[in-house]
Amino acid sequence: MKTIGLVGGISWTSTIDYYRFINEETNKVLGSLNFAECIIYSVNFEHFRKSNAAYNWDATFELLLKAALHLEQAGAEVLLLGANTAHIVADRIRACVQLPLIDIREATSNAIHEKGLKKVGLMGTSYTMELDFYKEKLSASDIEVLTPSNKTDRDYIEETLVHELGRGILSEETKKNYLTIANRLIAEGAEGIVLGCTEIPLIIQQADLPVPVFNTTQIHAKAAVDFALQ
Hints:
Elements: E1 4-8, H1 12-30, E2 38-42, H2 45-53, H3 57-74, E3 78-81, H4 90-94, H5 104-114, E4 119-123, H6 126-130, H7 135-139, E5 144-146, H8 151-163, H9 172-187, E6 192-195, E7 213-215, H10 216-228
C-alpha cells in the first residue's frame, strides 16, 4: 500500500473523519488488522482562515505547499488536501510536488456520475459556493450546479462552519437551518446535495434528506485508498 499524506487541520474536526474513513476503507478491503500507512501534517486553521478571508490565495498556497512538501519529504506517496476550499490552489500545488494529488472535486464528480445525476446542490464555504474553482470542475463533467441564491444563507453557512463546526460545536439549530437551505436547493431542482465542506457531514447525513447526499470527506478518503491500493 502506498503511504497517504494528508494535509489536515483545515479543520481538525474533519481531519478526524478523514483518518477514520481512510482506515475503515483500508480495513474493509484488506481485512484482518490491516490499516492505512498515513502521514498527517496539520496546519494552523487560523492562518488558513485569515488568508482566505483576505482573498490572499498566494498565502493560502504557501501555507499548504509547505505542508505538502513536508509530507513528501517524510515519505508520503500520494497527497490529499483535507478540505474542499483548499482546492482553490490544488492545481498550483500539484505542479510543485512530485506526488500524485487526489482532487476532491474530481472524486466528487465521479461519485455523482455513479448515481446518474445531472444536477446537484452545492453547500460549502462562501468561497466554494461563490467562486468558480469548484463549480467549473463539476460543470466540466456535465454536472449542473446550484448554490444557495440568498447571500444571507451563504454567509450563514460560512459563519457557522468557521465558528461552530470548525471548533467542534455541533448545534441542532444549525443543523435545522442547513437542512432548510438544502431543501430549498432540492425544490429548485437539485437531484442530490454535495456537502462541499468537510465539516458539513458532521451534522448532515444521508438519512436527513430525501435525495442522494455526497459526503465529500468520505468520497475523498475512499479515492485516496483506492489509489494507494492499486
